[in-house]
């Protein structure tokens, strides 16, 4: 057995280095490991690559890690010069604020005669290569940028650069924001092939320090201009891996099987369908390539993953950010749900001793309260190996979900033909819906005449569409003088409704708008080859217009007491009045719905008894 232990003192802290160092897919590529070939879909899949004409094959145990301090893996080789290799990487914080990175590996050669050349290669070439890569990661972490290590592979299609220039002109002609458009062009010109296979707009926004919505919209415009291709990735809710990719929404289907987690799941717009982009193949025909099948950065929502052998136990000292987590084992259904509070007034979390073992009779009920620095004891009293994982619930923070994207007006304008397969129904999760209608529109046509009234109604539609788009929503459809719009969050729908009142009063004082907002779960369907929504949430939203006096906005308590909406109403208390209403809603007589009427202060209307 050959053992090596190397250390580097780096300037960046463990938290900043962790996303780079623990991304072993990038690390292997940067250190010269060949592209991998995977065989089979079972959990014990065989992995291989070719080196100097020889095939090297292995299986590997699941990666283990505890973010942002350590990770490791054990490989069992089937062919090649090794029988076994174990790697362990530790990131220890230094008093100076930097990191002592310790890389430990042990190798078991297939033959004793191979020990000396392997040892020489590791001491000379491998260590030098690792030093160069880790130093590059350190510099990148200090400037919060992507690392530049191996020479970038930039593959352009024949005439790809000419197409890029021509389509960029089309992008600018479509009204793209110049700075974001320039950054996108630089991305397509200078990025490595591997970085253009799966472009995540919210991750791009963080790198550019730009608005998420603006970045998403520039990507949509670029897709329409032929610079990018957009895709619908169906993500496993457990490992977050993309298990199916569709180029059109109508190709999204279910159920989908994840062989790694051994579960079936259905598409859900708010949880398991993410919109990603890739460089258009006529410009940059980048191909996806794997250099590692595991690593913590494939599942960054998992804080730690630990394997326990039969009838063993261990203790882990954790340092957790505030938020909600779940502790689970793939061998058992369900999970233990946990809420982590912030540090105490001294900046420390104190110490909580927590014991967990397989849920023979089910995981603990309810939600446990942990502090920021728990000491977790794990036990495995069974006769089989078990894997435990602690996962952050906010796993989709960096995902542009289909629920958000399909609610954008820009998406509906640019890709009006995107719809589900006929008969396909997909859960959307919770969205907010704004319904509007004009008060007295029949009388308007009679008094003003058909031509003038029609012009006023069309102008009113333009105002509504503009306001809805500004708040990140989209017009789903119009019915007569009525509008149905969708928003990812209730607060945006409330803001849009009140702003529509204000603008309509300024430009068309003869028109009086009624508006209602409700939020909740629904399903997405194909209706007349357009993406539409159905469900009781929509039905109730439409009923709210019956409680409007005109110039006001009626919302359900679910909307008014949404934390973001409530905070916004409190901040704008001088600009609007809020009254509570209570009345039966047609079609929902068995349910009690408390309503709230929000009226702009400058155009207050009497509160009628309903």
Q: How would you explain this protein's 3D organization?
A:
The model is unreliable at 344-351 and 603-610 (pLDDT under 50). The chain has 610 residues and is α+β, with helices and mostly antiparallel strands. Strands 1, 2, 3, 4, 5, 6, 7, 8, 14, 16, 17, 19 and 21 form a 13-stranded mixed sheet that branches. Strands 22, 23, 24, 25, 26, 27, 28 and 29 form an 8-stranded mixed sheet that branches. It has 4 domains: 2-142, Alpha-D-Glucose-1,6-Bisphosphate, Chain A, domain 4 (2-Layer Sandwich), CATH 3.30.530; 155-294 and 396-418, no CATH class; 302-392, no CATH class; 431-603, Alpha-Beta Plaits, CATH 3.30.70.1230.
Please provide a brief summary of the model.
The chain is α+β, with helices and mostly antiparallel strands and 610 residues long. It contains 15 helices and 29 strands.
CATH topology of the largest domain: Alpha-Beta Plaits
CATH architecture title of the largest domain: 2-Layer Sandwich
Question: Which residues form runs of ≥5 with pLDDT under 50?
Answer: 344-351, 603-610
Q: Helical element count?
A: 15
Radius of gyration based on Cα positions? 28 Å
**Strand content of the residues, in percent?**
25-35%
- According to DSSP, the number of beta strands is 29
- Supply the CATH class of the largest domain: Alpha Beta
Report the CATH superfamily of the largest domain.
Answer: Nucleotide cyclase, GGDEF domain
Average pLDDT level: 84
Structural class: alpha+beta
Dominant shape: globular
**Helical amount among residues, as a percent range?**
25-40%
Q: Estimate nothing, just give the exact number of structural domains.
A: 4
Distance between the amino and carboxyl termini: 83 Å
Q: Tell me about the biggest sheet?
A: 13 strands, mixed
